[in-house]
TrEMBL record:
Belongs to the LysR transcriptional regulatory family. Keywords: DNA-binding, Transcription, Transcription regulation. It comes from Kitasatospora aureofaciens (Streptomyces aureofaciens). Residues 3-60 form the HTH lysR-type domain. This is LysR family transcriptional regulator. InterPro entries: LysR_HTH_N, LysR_subst-bd, WH-like_DNA-bd_sf, WH_DNA-bd_sf.
Length: 321
């Protein structure tokens, strides 16, 4: 016999009532029926759960062990059943979208696009520095879509079942302390950054660090990465004057930090939107791509440095994705 939740309720009721007769009444069963059920449960578990006394029944030491676990499990089961019962009455959304994103200014646009089609949708998000786990999660059905990115020559390999649409390709800029002498320049040459302490993400299977190193090696340059950090830690180190770092062109300047283009635009980054080919967002591809692209250009417009760079290129967009 396989143990079921109803069996746990029976033994808990027997323990709470202190007798088979009272337990049968509370469960609206017959006393012989409860007694027979208890015997089957004890055989299934391989031990006696209660000792019989003139005044009723008392849990054995083994019974106490089983009861402690049954009492821990049943409240959670009751909550689950309550949620399942209330869901249709509460009118909960049938649409649930789990989204992922690397550090990029596109996630808000993706949520906006989904909300335009499913205003009542339940949307959750997950951030990740490396895009590889995100596309793997999309392939495995753990995410419906993800904002990811890659570098020239190191394009992201999308797993089977995952589709991707390039949103934009942009140059990498450099983030400097605002008081750094190079911050006074319109563009910074790589040779002027020789000897600087760099902050960069740890090498990962997205191979971005490899792309940087290989590109700079061809140019006869190298990075002296002494701070392997991401996100807010990079910002803190640069603002404090302890490091410089590459950054996306859409990265906004904040007090204490300057963003400058690199002479010759040696490094590039491509933003990509990925989704499951058979997922609920596949049919919305044109709308999602359009809204996410608009979100990118909204972010670009917020950066005076990026706008100025675009004007100098005689372009209204970065290199074609």
């Amino acid at each position: 016999m396989e143990l079921e939740f109803r069996h746990l309720r029976i033994i808990c009721s027997i323990a709470d009532c202190g007798s088979l007769t009272r337990a049968a009444a509370s469960l609206r069963l017959t006393q012989p029926g409860v007694s027979a059920q208890l015997a089957r449960i004890e055989r299934a578990l391989g031990g006696e759960l209660f000792s019989r006394a003139q005044s009723g029944v008392i849990p054995t030491a083994f019974g106490e062990e089983v009861l402690s676990r049954a009492r821990a499990v049943l409240p959670t089961v009751d909550e689950l059943l309550e949620v399942a019962t209330l869901a249709p009455q509460a009118g909960w959304s049938q649409h649930r979208f789990r989204l992922g994103s690397v550090n990029a200014p596109l996630l808000g646009g993706l949520i906006t696009a989904i909300r335009s089609h499913h205003p009542e949708a339940e949307i959750s998000t997950r951030g990740q520095g490396c895009p590889v786990p995100l596309v793997e999660a999309v392939a495995g059905g753990r995410l419906e879509a993800a904002v990811v990115g890659d570098s020239p020559g190191y394009e992201l390999a999308l797993p089977a079942g995952v589709a991707g649409e390039p949103i934009a390709t942009e140059p990498l800029f450099v983030a400097l302390p605002a008081a750094h002498p190079l911050a006074a320049l319109e563009e910074v040459a790589l040779e002027d950054l020789e000897g600087e302490d760099w902050a960069a993400p740890r090498p990962d299977n997205d191979r971005i660090r490899e792309y940087w190193s290989r590109t700079l090696l061809v140019l006869g340059r190298r990075l002296r990465v002494v701070h392997e950090v991401e996100g807010r830690l990079v910002l803190d180190l640069v603002r404090s004057g302890h490091a410089v770092s590459f950054c996306q062109a859409t990265f906004e300047e904040v007090p204490g930090l300057a963003v400058r283009p690199i002479v010759g635009n040696p490094l590039w980054y491509r933003h990509v939107l990925a989704w499951h080919e058979e997922g609920p967002l596949a049919s919305l591809r044109p709308s999602l791509v359009q809204t996410v692209t608009e979100a990118y250009w909204t972010a670009a417009a917020r950066s005076a440095v990026y706008r100025s760079w675009l004007e100098r290129q005689g372009a209204t967009a970065p290199a074609p994705a």
